[in-house]
């Protein structure tokens, strides 16, 4: 497959979207990280005491797979209050990688639901945090209410190879979906 594709990287606040894009991008990624403020504290639940910044518009990066397919990665803000911007970012997207954190799977329900509402094909990548408990695939699929054909992979957003594999899983799913539709 050659060409270019717009891909969303979605998930709740603190799941690793900015990290994943920064890890795989072959260009200096654009990041709109801002210090979390007192005003936002009333609306946003802090994920961890060490998390002091959050994406307020988008993250952007680019990666070329196989020397021929360019993925333009758009990371969405994780808070519900940014949903209007999130919908704008989804326009023209070929698909999405939904990052989840097993320490708080419930936080991922909104992002996955928004993808389904917008009819954006997606795969799920469980970001393996050092202090997260591993779960088997069937339990994760059940907890996230995933359809059987939805790809589910484990990745570490801090590791290049792992993050690229998650993106390859998504692209393979998109190719398969497009092939079945034609």
Automatic annotation (TrEMBL):
InterPro entries in UniProt: Gliding_Motility_GTPase, Gpn, P-loop_NTPase
Keywords: ATP-binding, GTP-binding, Hydrolase, Nucleotide-binding
A matching Pfam family: ATP_bind_1
Domain of life per record: Bacteria
Repressor keyword on record: no
GO molecular function, one term: GTP binding
Membership in a protein family: Belongs to the GPN-loop GTPase family.
Protein name per its UniProtKB record: ATP-binding protein
